[in-house]
Amino acid sequence: MTSLPPLSFRLLRSSLSTSLVGSLLTWGLVLGTRVGAAESLTLRWGPLTQTVSFDDLDRFAATGEVPRPLSPYRALLTDNLQTTLRNEISLDPAVAQDYLDDILHTPGGNQLLATLQALVPNLAATDLQIALTRAARSQQPLTLTNLLRHLPPASLELRLGTLLSLAAQFQLAQMENAALGRLLRHELAKTPPDRVPPSNLDPFSTGSSQVERWELVLRDRQRERSIPVDIYWSEDTHGPLVVISHGFGADRRFFSYLAYHLASHGLTVVAVEHPGSNVSALMSLPPPASDAKAEGSRILPATEFLDRPRDISYVLDRMEKLNLYSYSLRDRFNTEQVTLIGHSLGGYTGLALAGAPLDLRQLAETCQHLNPVHFSPADWLQCAALDLPVKYANLKDNRIRQLIVTNPLTGLLFGEAGLKRVQVPTLMLASTRDGVTPMAQQQLGPFEQLAGPKYLITAVDGTHLSVGDPENLNANLGHIPFMPELPDGASGNLRVFLQGVSLSFIMQQTSEAKAYRSFLSPSYAEAFSTTQLPLGLSSTLPNSLQAWPRLYQQRPHLQANWLDYGPSVFHLEAINLREQLQTLGSQMMTYLSTSPPSLTTVYWPRPPRRPQLQAHRPLRHRATP
Q: What are phi and psi of 422, to 5 degrees?
């Protein structure tokens, strides 16, 4: 076999060492481990090939020692890889089979398969399905190496040229996200603090009301849907009603800390659980139909995009009746003034109820051209809506008077202009390291479209789950590559800040609006900021981002070439450089105006004097008399 040029491989290795696509090569390195006749993997770059022995890879997995033939791949053979190869996978193979089968019948799944086949031409979807089926029947613990041993015999070939192209796309996407984070961090640092008047209120601390939580299950017989709810209330109930909608794969306890906090200040809170997209539905998928294409997605049924808003409207109808007829809860549900708090898919739910119509007419083309390298789970989830029999639906509920949406899923679910019809006051939270609903496409761009009064909380280095209740989150979610989590305690200040800002925002519907308005200030965001998680609060996007094309690009996932990311990254880096120069110039001017340079007289040493030569006068001879 012809070996690969060392320089070319070093270039590939440096491009992959910190990227997700690097893990694809890692998977490629283990795909043929002792499967039938396959004892090696062929790496191909054009006419050049190199063979990797899997016996050497097994030795590395068992001992951590890098054999000499694998030494060129040392940068990829990390401790994390060794742990991954040996650890048991906490996933039921039958459940994994359901997920794989469901994903492969979506438009995004088709694109993913096309990419995998370009990368590893001999690997087919049926190979993965057969391996999962065999692993499910096996009595051995499910580890990565054991799973891969169940692949049918194949001679696998990994194309390094394709891998390098994918790595470049992914790396540029990461660079764009990092540049955006640096820009927002810089914007927060230069925001001048406001003068906040003293106040006896403290919306960030727990209130004085004693909170009770009641659990109910409401049965919507018309839709054959049972909806669990938690009601948080106190004897001091007053003000608007707060309704909470959780995200995909979560439950009604996701914001339990926030519900308790708001109820302790006298608000009634109703946390709704959506039965078709909660954690229970995710862990117990229905059996596949005979025609999976006709059935649509089982992971997220398309009907959820209609049923979720209707769940909220149904719950409000029932709360109206309890407000009139319940002995204990009478007059505790102000259903004419409702603030909806939604996270992720719950954010979509709130925006739909606030007036943004579900409009799928422009979504189909995007879903047919998803680029698997840099598209997000939010893109996959929104494409599930295409299975709906309708392409347009108005789900507005006029009882929704305010919105608080954290890391919302928006995409193209509302068309290109549907969010302009949201005129209720909205508080939105966006996180720069959100790998599920990326900040630029899912929050910053949509925030610009909102027509009503609005505030934006920016959590620099925050993630998709940073606002969730730590005691009600599945710890395993933080190990998913696109859902990285901050260390324990790092996001505590964010949750406390969200408590106070949410209360102050909700109270803008009451006669106490003026007293709470001062807490909707950037100064309080700065007070709760940490070095690890800086926070910002504003009513507009930074001026430096107003001209960033990505915010107004309605279909960013039609990008198919890594060169498409270049202008965006260059634009952000140019803004960062300009801001740094402006800050440096401002600092210099401030220094010169407050500390003028002192004038110092410098005396240069005089050169030594040269002895002056006296001119010799000509001797005058006296005349001899």
A: -85, 110
Instruction: Give, as one character, the DSSP assignment of residue 508.
Output: G
Could you say which of 490, 518, 552 is where a domain stops? 552
Full-model pTM: 0.79
pLDDT, tens digit, for every residue of 422-464? Answer: 999 999 999 998 888 988 889 998 999 999 999 999 999 999 9
Token pair of 334, please? 């102000």
Environment class of residue 481 by beta-carbon count within 10 Å: exposed (0-12), middle (13-18) or buried (19+)? exposed
Using a 10 angstrom Cβ sphere, with 0-12 exposed, 13-18 middle and 19 or more buried, the burial of residue 509 is middle
Residue 214 is part of a domain; what is its CATH number? 3.40.50.1820
Residue 90 has pLDDT above 70, yes or no: no
CA dihedral defined by 55, 56, 62, 67, rounded to 10 degrees? 160
- pLDDT, tens digit (0-9, with 9 covering 90-100), for 326-335: 999 999 999 9
Would you say residue 203 lies in a domain? no
Kindly report, residue by residue over 157-195, the tens digit of the pLDDT. 777 777 767 766 667 777 777 888 888 888 887 776 666
Whether 16 has a pLDDT exceeding 60, the answer reads no
Distance, in Å, from the CA atom of 307 to the CA atom of 440, rounded to the nearest integer, reads 27
Kindly give, in sequence order, each residue whose CB lies less than 8 Å from that of residue 216, ignoring residues fewer than 6 positions away.
Answer: 228, 229, 231
Rounded Cα distance, 33 and 86, in Å: 13
Q: What range defines the domain where residue 251 resides? A: 210-287+299-552
Tell me whether residue 247 is in a domain.
yes
* Residue 71 one-letter amino acid: S
Helix (H) or strand (E) holding 160: helix 160-190
Q: What gap in Å lies between CA 75 and CA 497, rounded to an integer?
A: 41
Rounded CA-CA distance 20/581 in Å is 34
Distances (CA, A) of 33 to 60, 343, 561: 12, 42, 33
Residue that is last in its domain, among 509, 524, 552: 552
Query: Does 504 reside within a domain?
Result: yes
Number of other residues whose CB lies within 10 A of the CB of residue 60: 18
Residue type, 195: R
